[in-house]
UniProtKB/TrEMBL annotation, chain A:
Main subcellular location: membrane
Cell location: Cell membrane
UniProt family annotation: Belongs to the binding-protein-dependent transport system permease family.
Superkingdom of the organism of origin: Bacteria
UniProt lineage: Bacteria, Pseudomonadati, Pseudomonadota, Alphaproteobacteria, Hyphomicrobiales
One example of a Gene Ontology biological process annotation: transmembrane transport
Keywords assigned: Cell membrane, Membrane, Transmembrane, Transmembrane helix, Transport
Protein name, UniProt field: ABC transporter substrate-binding protein
Family matches, as SUPFAM superfamilies: MetI-like (SSF161098)
Gene source species: Bradyrhizobium manausense
Bilayer topology: Multi-pass membrane protein
Segments crossing the lipid bilayer: 9-30, 100-123, 135-156, 176-196, 240-266, 286-312
InterPro entries found in the cross-reference section: BPD_transp_1_N (IPR045621), MetI-like (IPR000515), MetI-like_sf (IPR035906)
TrEMBL record, chain B:
Similarity comment text for this entry: Belongs to the bacterial solute-binding protein 5 family.
Protein name per its UniProtKB record: Peptide ABC transporter substrate-binding protein
Major location category of this protein: periplasm
TM stretches of this protein: 27-49
Subcellular location: Periplasm
Signal peptide start and end residues: none
CDD domains in UniProt: PBP2_thermophilic_Hb8_like (cd08513)
Biological process per Gene Ontology, one example term: peptide transport
Pfam families: SBP_bac_5 (PF00496)
GO cellular component: ATP-binding cassette (ABC) transporter complex; outer membrane-bounded periplasmic space
Amino acid sequence: MSQYVLRRLLIAIPSLLGISAVLFFVLALAPGDPFSELATNPNVPPEVQAALRARFGLDDPIYLRYLHWLFAMAHGDWGFSFVSRMDVDRLILQRLPATLYVIGSAQVLALLIAIPVGVYAATKPYSLFDQIANTLAFIGFSLPTFFTGLLFILIFSVTLDWLPFVYTTDIKATGIHYVLEMIRQAIMPVAVLGLFQAASMTRFVRSAMLDVIRLDYVTTARAKGLGQAKVIVKHVMRNAMIPVVTLIALQMPAVFGGALVTEQIFRIPGIGSLLISSILSNDTPVVMAVTFVFACLVVLFNLIADVLYGWLDPRISLR
Amino acid sequence: MLDKELRSMIGDVKDGRMDRRAFIQRLAAVGLTAPMANQILAIGGVAMAQSPSPYPPTKRGGGGPLKLLWWQGPTLLNPHFATGTKDQDGSRLFYEPLASWDVDGHLNPILAAEIPSIKNGGLAADGKSVTWKIKPGVKWHDGKPLTADDLVFTWAYASDPATAAVSISTYADMSVEKVDDLTIRLVFNKPTPFWANAFVGAYGCILPKHLFADYKGSKSREAPTNLAPVGTGPYKFVEFKPGDLIRGELNPEYHMPNRPHFDTIEMKGGGDAVSAARAVIQTGEFDFAWNMQVEDEVLLRLEKGGKGKTTYAVGGDIEFIAINFTDPNTEVDGERSSIKTKHPILSDLAVRQALALLVDRESVKKAIYGRAGRTTSNYLNGPEDFVSKNTKWEFSVEKAIALLEKAGWKAGADGIREKDGKKLKFVYQTSINGPRQKTQAIVKQACQKAGIDVELKSVVASVFFSSDVANPDTYSKFYTDIEEFQIPMTQPDPALHMKRYISSQVASKDNKWQGQNFPRWVNKDYDAAIEAAETEIDPVKRAALYIKCNDMLWQDVVFIPVMHRLTVDACATALQPVVSGWANRTDNIQDWYRGA
């Protein structure tokens, strides 16, 4: 087992190197530079722009810049933001709590809805409940989050005036009021993201359950006289969850990566909005760090999913 | 003649026979901006009117929180590194200059004890030095006193090329001397008619020597105070999250009485302009939102709710269509639009004049900019009362057709005019931005009626405005026939705004397209006028020179002004912001208050 994990981690190294190289060169080839805003400003002479470019090493050849970056990254130096003139890791750590809180809650909400609904719908296929759940799920994942987000804002903020639509990180209150306010301002973004996730996940859980529920061993279990609840939870769900676990594991990096659109709409200062503003201002070190961390997380959670398989189904051996 | 008249007028103002207002109006009539008129008075020996805005609050604090929404959040808090106005706005909450520009474009003393003038001995008659007196008793947020050493240091810091400050050109070509603890003297290398640049406005913010002394030059980026400012401003720094949030609290030892009004201040970043407008005008979650680049129609609809309003400030920002005087389709020595070529069609003045007749500025204003724009025929636009009387514009397809016919451009078989086998076809580029694409469509339609074929091209803003040497689509490479964008006027003086178009500034491969003369227009008279104006200490002659420059641009149709743009902000109904079109939004933040 530990040998397997070690081997997988070693395999990950060349693939991460490859990913980082591709990211770096694509970003280097992309148009624009971080000091473009200075170009139309008559106060800033071209020499200053040139000095800034030289200062941040933008004039070096690409491969050299890549090697510099790689070397620094290996030492735990994530780089230095051109735009904010501060270390990238500090910038990212500042944004992480908001993203973890909002996106994490949304994932939990999605699971809380998707698993019970999916399982129940699968036990009674084509019943009225199943039909309704299916229809809602269909609508849910057909509507993009930017649409539902704006719709929620119009209904709950503008018309009803119940919820704020600008997410603030410095709530004035303390104690219980602080907690309530944190929940209040997260309701809309969490609902928007959670319902969207729940919709696709419900359909996934349902079909995974349906695949298993008709197998002979389930009929055997029922024939033994086990109760419905025990059959579903112990026999069916455990096997049906294998593909679901993969899906969830692959979505975990997104919890850290943030939700680009939703964060922008609700002004949540998370990783997603950091990535967008960095891309817009051509702040390559930040874009590079965020995307690279994202890539690492994807690799890591894939590994975790594989390890979990072994626990869920002992027949799958890891060598 | 004008010269003589003006001198007697200055005399009248000095002796009190004529009031300042009348003087400024008279000068506006001959095409001088109010800020210019004031500087003329200052050089002529009359103290600049310090026109403090009415400020009713009678005690410090008590105004509750002030919540600002900047849809692009500030990313750093050192005014001398501020790459965009957002960063300047954020820094200005904590740092202060000697003087700010007020709503009318007058100097408003902040850290200065008084505004220099000839009368108080602050201005040298030869225009080569300025003496500023610093207000006594001002303290940095950490309790240390503000002295002349801090100003001398700020100059040394910003003018050091190794620091790589964006304010370097503001502090170049001069030296700053300490006269005594509260007096400094700026000594210019050559006569400088516009002296109120260093230590004024956004780039004028003064840094504390005791905190930055170790971080001058190449170590500048390591200064911890780049992200945690210690200034003299009305608010003390509490917290900064780049791109997201700035928080400040009332400075109990602020040097102006009864100020500031608000107990805390926060500047939230992120999102987009429309939803920012919504958060201020419709739901009232925030007090003030910056830069409402939103269609007027949308704003009008939001304002019906009554929780907020839009406010406008007049500056000199000009949206224009520029003409390429060189040939974008012929490559010479590895560059297109080379100064060695001539544009095959646009070098014909009649064609340029016809184009100017085809830009329907009134429709553009009505359909797009609404209250946020003013039609104009000038490239150089001052405050409200600045209109160069010598220029005019009109929209007339008939006249454009007549002009083209007369010049020999006859309609071909396909309806497109041609002459000597050259078709009247243009590529018209601009950045991707809703209003600009609409303007393109309006112009294209009129051109079609006149038999001109226009091909529209839109480039992503981050590419269009970049200085990327490898990219062919930047505004400075100008590989198309005409292009549209906006150049903001960053200070109430035309020097920088007009200097761009001298012959030596032509953008080319040699200067990596960093030359600012992107239309590649060459005119010896213009060069001479600019050169003369740079060192002309007589304010009247200098102003006349810049008006002449503007008129030359107009006569030669180098630019077709589309819109004189105002700055638009959203503001809660009760809030009384003080926003000048000549400065940053927060340049007078100490005077903001909430009315009853």
